[in-house]
Specification:
Blueprint (H helix, E strand, L loop, with lengths): L1 H19 L8 H20 L47 E3 L2 E3 L42 E11 L4 E6 L4 E5 L8 E9 L5 E12 L2 E12 L6 E6 L2 E6 L17 E9 L39 E10 L5 E12 L4 E5 L9 E5 L14 E8 L5 E8 L2 H5 L6 E2 L4
Parallel strand pairs: 5-7, 10-12, 15-17
Antiparallel strand pairs: 1-2, 3-4, 3-6, 4-5, 6-7, 8-9, 8-11, 9-10, 11-12, 13-14, 13-16, 14-15, 16-17, 17-18
Length: about 400
């Protein structure tokens, strides 16, 4: 019975298969028909299979625009295309299950996976890296300084400066908040000011004592008094009185000529108590001595005594007198009626003498005040007349570094 049923079933199946099959009369059709059948079977299998959800078989193709692939040349946007007008689909971020095996598909291997802006945010327990804040304003310029080493030979409280005699014999005025005592060696860092003098920068280092020194300058004043002969040596920013010891025989002192350059070797000593002032001689009548056209202002306060005195040990004079000299002093009178300016013969008024300078039209002395410390350059005529050529302030660091106060040859 069973064998009969089985045979009947096989006959039905054969009949059905023969009706649904195509009759191939030529062997050349076999390859073509086999490929078509295989393709149709794969399509049906994918369509109805459990892995079809979310694939191209279940819906239209998803399109994701790649912003990095859009050319922006300031005109119409141009999209990168492959085989049509549709944008290139983005590579999936997870493997596709094909035939039970994982396979990672990347449309552009060199491009990073596309993520949303939210996915690029740092975790909640981390703070985003902060960019360096721009500095407010520019960095201050580094101050250019010069190392100065020498012996302190002079102090000038009026100008707030002291003068070094360097190893080479130069006179170098240095402004400072606190002045050292003359007679010591120091080394400092200093910056140059507008008027050519210097200002201390940093710490002053003491290098020992200095009981003598050698320096060079131009002779700008003479005091031929036999009992106390002296002359003034001047450089840019300093005018120092050099005293001569009286000759025991009473001979007249040998003084240099005004305008000559000289190198003096001196002893640095503390000032002696002032000698008793002798009774002044009777003043000559106005008919015998003409009254000066410009005299020191009597309201000017008395000068402070010097912190030290330098005594000549040796003097070497160089060449002929110069026609152009440097001066430093205190304003003792301004006479606009006669176009004359009076400054002290030395920068601390130690000698109590004055120099008269003619004021040319290019120099404005109207803003000068009594007691101001100034630097000056002057033209020296053969008859000894001085004509102002340049003028600048030397009143503390502020005045010495003010370019607006410089005139004539001292204006930069």
């Amino acid at each position: 019975m069973i064998q009969r049923l089985t045979g009947s079933l096989r006959g039905v199946v054969d009949l059905t298969a023969r009706g649904a099959s195509l009759i191939v009369t030529d062997r050349r059709w076999g390859v073509t028909m086999s490929a078509a059948a295989l393709g149709f079977g794969l399509f049906v299998g994918v369509a109805i299979g459990p892995g079809a959800s979310g694939t191209f078989a279940t819906g239209p193709q998803q399109l994701i625009e790649l912003p990095s692939l859009v050319a922006d040349d300031g005109g119409d946007e141009e999209e990168l295309e492959t085989g049509g007008s549709s944008p290139v689909p983005a590579a999936p971020s997870s493997p596709l299950a094909v035939g039970g095996e994982s396979s990672s598909l990347e449309a552009f291997p060199s491009a990073a996976p596309l993520t949303s802006e939210a996915s690029e945010s740092p975790p909640a327990d981390e703070e985003p890296a902060s960019e360096p804040k721009p500095t407010a304003g520019e960095e201050p310029e580094e101050v250019e300084t010069t190392e100065l080493v020498g012996a302190v030979v002079h102090a000038n409280p009026a100008a707030g400066s002291y003068t070094l005699a360097t190893k080479g014999g130069e006179l170098v005025p240095v402004h400072a908040a606190k002045l050292p005592q003359p007679g010591i060696k120091v080394s400092i860092e200093a910056r140059q000011l507008a008027n050519g003098t210097f200002a201390e920068e940093g710490t002053r280092k003491r290098e020992g004592k200095a009981t003598k020194a050698t320096f060079r300058g131009v002779v700008t004043h003479l005091d031929p008094t036999p009992a106390a002969p002296a002359y003034t040596l001047s450089g840019r920013g300093a005018s120092i009185v050099v005293h001569l010891r009286p000759d025991p025989t009473g001979a007249a002192p040998q003084l240099p000529v005004i305008g000559t350059y000289a190198t003096a070797t001196v002893d640095i000593e503390k000032p002696q108590p002032p000698a008793p002032v002798a009774e002044p001689p009777a003043e000559p009548t106005p008919e015998a001595v003409p009254a000066p056209t410009c005299v020191p202002d009597p309201t000017l306060p008395a000068a402070v005594g010097p912190a030290s005195v330098v005594w000549q040990r040796q003097l070497k004079v160089e060449g002929e007198p110069a026609a152009y000299i440097d001066l430093a002093g205190v304003v003792t009178a301004v006479c606009p009626d006669t176009a004359q300016l009076l400054i002290s013969a030395d920068d601390t008024r130690e000698s109590a003498e004055h120099l008269t300078l003619a004021i040319p039209t290019k120099i404005d002395a109207s803003k000068l005040e009594l007691g101001d410390s100034v630097l000056a350059t002057a033209e020296l005529a053969e008859d000894g007349t001085l004509t102002l050529a340049g003028l600048a302030s030397d009143d503390q660091i502020k005045g010495a570094d003010d370019e607006a106060l410089a005139q004539g040859d001292l204006k930069r």
